[in-house]
Amino acid sequence: MREQRGGVRLLIRHPDGGMESVVLPFPWSRQEVGPILARVRNIYLLTLQGHALQDAAAIALGRGPQRKDSWTEALQHFRQQKLDHGGAIRPITWAKNYAPVLELAVQLLESPKRPPDSASLLDACLRGWAPGTRARQIRAQSLAQFLRHCVEREKFPASWRPPLDLRPHIGVPAAETAAGHRKGDPFTDLQVLQLLDSLPTDQPGRRWADAFRLLAELGLRPIELQHLGVRSDPGSGQPLWWCSYRKRSGGGMTTPRWVHPLPLTDWDGRRQDWQLLERWRAGAIELPPLGNGPGAADAIGTYLKRQQGWVELRERMAERGERAVPYSFRHGYSLRGHQLGIDPGSVALSMGHSLEVHLRSYPWASSQGAAAAFAKALAT
């Protein structure tokens, strides 16, 4: 607070550096300290409920528009928007993916003890679905859409805008947080080749096969298929793979990168030449539908679950205590690189993460490889 022309101005500085202020109807006087502090406390509590500073001050004064956002009315508008406009959805989709979580959200929002912000609301509404499940992910995305609608279309306070990153609210299945099971195990080259041979040979099957070839040969995250391209190397002028994806990590954001292919080797020791770069440049590779953003991994997982070759591969790996997941293509790239003698730092650079993350989270050695390495060292 500060004095302004004999009155009181309340200033609030936001974490992003912005500032708001409002004049309070009190003289700048020692005798008014108690009433001023009481008024500031009331204004603060109103801002926690989602009111902007000016509105909170007016409400605390007793003459402001005591706006009570109608969440029920906003939900009706959002439902109409989803069913009748844009990429309209079917009523059955609304009933399955939207209504359960949004009706719960509105009940909480219009209760006397509503959650104070969007993050708290997400946590409260998602407790009924197991962490990390597809159902919980869909509910989180549906609720986030509704909250964005309320802020952008219904002009609700900006404090209800959902977090950009929903993953902390979606969570990870408890069974996958155990050591060695969260990200699955690497595929060998032969396992990838067997899986590719088992896929349908129709046009959709060929598109999926190319997607898996790219994942395996380039060590990509599933989402990076949507951020892949080809650029000329500044030094040699040769065309090289380029990935523009930026991933948020503990150390900030990863940077776009060059991606170096590691071709697979077949049963007879022959290196596979799928001509992916040439076919990509010629427009001969058409990727299958992968959804938006993080949905790429789910789309891949959904397709694979319908393939008998994938079912058999998962069963064979499970018998050895291993777990097959869409990321297993990427893990196989990591292991292949180290088996070829490429240093961990170079493999990590091509895969788009730090050396520390690489050594902690990705396979870069195997029991067979370790035995061979020690035998070679002793022989020399």
Description:
- It is a single chain.
- The protein folds into three domains: 2-61, no CATH class; 71-176; 189-379, hpI Integrase, Chain A, CATH 1.10.443.
- Helix content is 49%, strand content 9%.
- The protein has 16 helices and eight strands.
- The chain has helices at 33-48, 53-61, 71-84, 91-109, 118-126, 134-152, 167-170, 189-198, 203-218, 276-281, 295-305, 308-319, 328-339, 344-351, 355-361, 367-379; strands at 2-4, 7-13, 19-27, 228-232, 239-243, 248-249, 252-253, 257-259.
Strand percentage? 5-15%
* Number of separate helices: 16
Characterize the main sheet. Answer: 3 strands, antiparallel
What is the SS-derived class? mainly alpha
CA(first)-CA(last) distance: 77 Å
Mean pLDDT: 82
Summarize the structure.
The chain has 380 residues and is mainly alpha-helical. It has helices at residues 33-48, 53-61, 71-84, 91-109, 118-126, 134-152, 167-170, 189-198, 203-218, 276-281, 295-305, 308-319, 328-339, 344-351, 355-361, 367-379; strands at residues 2-4, 7-13, 19-27, 228-232, 239-243, 248-249, 252-253, 257-259.
